[in-house]
Each structure stands twice: as structure tokens, then as C-alpha cells.
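Troubleshooting log. The previous structure file for this entry was overwritten by mistake, so regenerating from the original sequence record. Sequence copied from the archived sheet and checked twice against the printout by T.R.
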Amino acid sequence: MNLLEACNAQSLINLFKHKQVEDPMFFYTVQAMANAISTIFLGTCHCLWTWHISRNETLKLVSYYAIPEFKRLFNKCLKGGEAKSEFECTWNEMISKFDLADNTWLKTLYQFCEKWCPVFSLDT
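Regenerated output below.
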């Protein structure tokens, strides 16, 4: 019996949370896992945890994290709003207002927004 056969979903969640604290780059490992899951388990949808994204925000955007307006906009993006256009508007406002167009982490995060932003899963 291998590790995945031996553990239940909660054990796997706990493992992921522990790995995230231990290694902030684990977020990118989870993204890679999402690609592998969709290849192996056809027809499934793998989402990224907003908890991981919030945790990485504190590490990757440390100089912005303490700014209330940035935090408000970022959290609004995490919640998604009621329409994709609202998400896009909020995201663009945050990027523009804080001059973050060249931020690599945010660029990557945006590329995966369908996997973590709730407004993109309304159709599924």
C-alpha cells in the first residue's frame, strides 16, 4: 500500500498545509499537480486553495501586505465577486494602483485564476 492509498482526504490536506508552511514554493508544486490530475483523471476539475494563495501573498508581497487598500483589493480578487468582469476590473485596479504589472508571482497567479477564483467556477 502506498502513501496515497493509506491516507484519507484530511490527511492529504494536512500534509499539503504542512508542506506549504515548510516550503513557500510548494504553491507551484500544487499547480503542477493540478496539471497532472487533469491528465490522469479526465473530466475532473482541480482547484487551488485560496488559503495557499493568501499564505503566499504574505511572503511574496510583504511590502504591500500591510497596506489596507492593497489587502482589500487582493482579498476581493480572492473572493471573485459576482461576475468575471468584476474580478478583472478589481485585478486590473490592484495591478495598476500598486504598479505591479511586472510582478512575476502575480502574473503566474493570474494565469491560474480559473483554478482559484470562485467566479470562474460558476459555470461548472
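The chain has one domain: 8-121. Archived copy saved in two places this time.
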